Amino acid sequence: MLMHLNILEKEIELLRNSLSEKKTNVKKLFKDLLETPSDIENYWLGGVSDLNNNGMPLQLCIGANKENIKLRIIGDPVSAIFQPAIRFNASKKVLESILSNRGLIHLNKVCIQLFSLLIEENSNISINDFYRGACWIGVSPEQPGIALYIDMMPFADNESWNMVIKCLSFLLPESNFLEETINNLRSYAIPASIGFEAVTEKKGRAKVYWRLKHPVQLEKLGIDLFKHPDIIYFLQKVIGRREMNLSGTVFNTGFSLATGELEDVKIDLCGHCLHQSSQDWKNVIHDLTTKLGLQKLPVDVALKDDICDVAFLGMGLTVNGDKRLNLYLKNNLH
Description:
Blueprint: H1 2-15, H2 26-34, E1 58-64, E2 69-75, H3 84-101, H4 108-118, E3 135-139, E4 146-151, H5 157-171, H6 176-185, E5 189-200, E6 203-212, H7 229-239, E7 249-256, E8 262-270, H8 271-274, H9 278-292, H10 299-302, E9 308-318, E10 323-331
Antiparallel strand pairs: 1-2, 1-10, 2-3, 3-4, 4-5, 5-6, 6-7, 7-8, 8-9, 9-10
Helix pairs in contact: 1-2, 3-4, 4-5
C-alpha cells in the first residue's frame, strides 16, 4: 500500500504548479483515509475495494470550473480489513477522526445517523452485506468540508430506493420535486450511493448516484438539466460512436441541504470502459474545457509517464448554468 501512496503523492507533486492552491499534508490525508485506527483489533487482512476497477482504494479528483482548478482525494477507508462488521465500524472511526481533525465534528452526528439507517432492525440488510465496505470519504487538502458516500448496492432494487428516500428525508427539508424525481427514477434506474457533501448541516448538498437499468432517452428521466446541450455535447465527445456500458455510466442529482431543491446534476463516464489512449484523453479533455469555457485541466501533466489512468471523467451542471469537469485518476498498475 505504501508504494501506491508514494505513486499518488508523486502525481500530486507533478500537478502542484498547475493547481489553484498550494497543497499541503497530502500524504497525511492518504494515511488518515486508509490506515486502520489503533483501537481496532482482531481483524484479518484480505478486504477488497470497489472504488476503482483495479482494486486501488484511492482516487484523485481534479475539478475545473470557469474560475479555478481544485483537488479532492477520495478514499475507501480501511479497505484492507476482511470482516464486514469490523470494517463497517472502523470506517465510522476513520470518518470521526477526519471530521475532528478538520474542525467538522459537528457533522459527526449526521454521518453516524446515515450509517445507522442502513442497518435498522426492521431492515433486510445486515452489516455482513457490506462485505466490500459501506462508504467512501472525500476530502480536499485545502478546501473546507467533507464528502461521505454511502453504498446502496447491497439493497435490492425497490428496497434501495426506499433507503434513498429514508436517507434524503433525514438530510433534507420536504420537497415535492424530490419525491416526484425519485418516483420517476424508480422505473429507469438503480441507486448506487447516497452522497453527503457538506461544511455544515445546511451548507452543502445531498446527492443520489444511480445507473440506468436499460437504455432510455434522457428526457424520460424527468430532470431537464440532463437534456442541456452542454451535457449532450459532453456525452457525444467522450463516447463518440462507441457503445457505453450502463454499469460504467453514473448519473447523479444534487439537492440543497438548505432548501431540498435540485441544485445540480452530473454524469460520470468510466475511463476503463472507453479504452482510450492517454493522448485521446488529452485531446478530448482539452476540447471540452475549451468548448465549455472552463479552466484548462492539467491533463498533460496528470497523464504524464502513465503514472495514473483515467478512472472517470464527469461533467456537472448547476441550475444556475455553472459547469464543471471532473477528472478522476487512479494508480496505473503495471
